[in-house]
Amino acid sequence: MSNTTTTTTKTTDKDSNDNKPVIGLSGRNIVYDKDGKPCRTCNTLLDFQFAMGKKPVIPHEPKEVKKEKLSGYTKDYPPDVSELGKSSWTLLHSIAATYPENPTDQQQKDLKQFINLFSGFYPCWYCGEDFKIYIKKNEIETKNQDLFGKWLCNAHNEVNKKLNKPVFNCELWKKRWKDGWDEEE
Amino acid sequence: MSNTTTTTTKTTDKDSNDNKPVIGLSGRNIVYDKDGKPCRTCNTLLDFQFAMGKKPVIPHEPKEVKKEKLSGYTKDYPPDVSELGKSSWTLLHSIAATYPENPTDQQQKDLKQFINLFSGFYPCWYCGEDFKIYIKKNEIETKNQDLFGKWLCNAHNEVNKKLNKPVFNCELWKKRWKDGWDEEE
């Protein structure tokens, strides 16, 4: 199961047989749903459009493409894997920042359940599967706010490593997600 | 209980007695936590800093203030109420977009539980309370993807109305959150 954590296993045999693209314009592997269609919530918008055979959005003109007005609201595209990831980490770390310092047993049970359900409903299916594997190997720490905040920070760093992004110093998680930075820092 | 949905009840008696600001620089009411401190996840960053008596971030120079580098990662501020809202709707609508067309009883039960837990853990406490009231009055529709997507779209519109934002035509929720817009639209 741990093989699913590498990006090279995200395409299925069916895809290569069908001559579907394996690498996207971003350089990432294209991820397909189990039915063989490109997965919208697992790829960047650019790669998704490329895999769908559509004219890709040119990165330096996103505003024209994304923000056309339609009867009062913007005609935004569904979020891609990056926007979805950023949004979800924002919510989860903020939940950590407001989780009680001394939670009750019920609050701890609820938080575990919430995180488990989150991993099941996460819209990028392979990301959710990776998260489930992480949870299995690293039990969710719910005893207090700081422990949960650090557990989540470590989980986020695992993803950062996979995406070749810098890892965060988890000792500083409260500055980033709860209290803010001191002015002199 | 429905009174808690108006912004004027978001300050406590204690706040006005202590001479704490009631209106923020954004024009919104300042929201305080139950212990009387300004609530970081319930206010805009500008209003939170104002209520804390700190030099406010000047809107046209956010990059200098928010994006200083610190040992490899950016020194971002904790998300304010707007960023948190946008992020959370992005996650929830994407969950609707990938929720099964024909969910099992267990999936329906799990989704209800997830949404209920979400309302309890939501980092902006008064937003979470408003959402709980909405859920009580409007039972979560989990029978299929389209019903859940529309239920969520209506819930989002309730918040849009409170914030004087345009409401979205829920018949189009799949274009915004699942399939994207046709090129000729």
Secondary-structure map:
2 copies of one chain form a homodimer.
Chain A: H1 13-17, H2 45-51, H3 62-66, E1 69-70, E2 73-74, H4 81-98, H5 105-121, H6 125-137, H7 145-162, H8 173-179
Antiparallel strand pairs in A: 1-2
Description:
- Chains A, B: It is found in: Mitochondrion intermembrane space.
- The structure is a homodimer of 185-residue chains.
- Chain A has 185 residues and is mostly helical.
- The first copy, chain A, is built from eight helices and two strands.
- Helix content of chain A is 49%, strand content 2%.
- Chain A has a two-stranded antiparallel ribbon with strand order 1-2.
- In chain A, helix 4 runs antiparallel to helix 7 and helix 5 packs antiparallel against helix 6.
- The N terminus of chain A is likely disordered.
- The interface between A and B is large, with 45 and 45 residues.
